Amino acid sequence: KALGFTSGVFHVECKMTSTGPQLIEVNARMGGGQVFECNLRSWGVDLVEETLFAALGIPSRPVVPKQPLSAVAYCYVNAPVS
Fold first, then answer.
1. Exposed/middle/buried for 51, CB within 10 Å: 0-12, 13-18, 19+?
2. Per the confidence metrics, is the pTM higher than 0.70?
């Protein structure tokens, strides 16, 4: 609410430091990379669908399980040069 966001899909990044958690980024958008697939596979929540519902003013409260549906992992392989 402090940022004026009241509904929709939000992307938040934090980093744990020696002085505690630090906020890196907050945006009113779906996260990039594998964020969509990780949320869908882990929690069964389709962030694209939720974004569309919010944009159209359609109330949405997706059913989120108490435990993740599955474990998800991914990694990036960086090229030595570009």
1. middle
2. yes
